[in-house]
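JOB MANIFEST
job_type = single_chain_structure
chain_count = 1
residues = 155
[input]
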Amino acid sequence: MIAKAPSSKARRLPKRATPKPKVARLKSSSDPVAPELVLLSRTKGTPDRGGGPGGEAWKIEVGGQRAGIVFINQIDEPPVGRHASIQIYLNKPNQGRHIGRVAYRKACEASSYDEIYAHMRKSNLASRRAAEEAGFEVDLRPGAAQLLMRWTRKP
């Protein structure tokens, strides 16, 4: 097999600068919501979203309007093993209004579990802040690919 010799030509420069993509920053159109206005109503869920064995699911409502869903699934993943894992999804217009932190807390308190874990990307600062405000603490267990946070019921 014959190897190609490196090209002596210099790399061609572009004729105009390539624009950098703008960083998307969602600005909420409304102020933060008062915690007493965030209501959770239990729902059946789907097999992947709180409807499976050991799962629980709640619709998140604010002012009579659906704002998202929060659910808990039983999963078996390292490094924790079998555990309750919470996830939350908020509709775009409701993000940044402190609804997530209230929904995390209310769902954990309404659940049948005494210990709940949240898995999230390490770069997801909004979810981390919401979970911390809800009482979750960072779990620095070795072997976790994502940020792992744990909520424990207080007696």
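[summary]
Strands lie at 38-43, 56-62, 65-77, 81-90, 115-120, 137-138, 147-152.
Helices lie at 99-110, 125-133.
exit_status = 0
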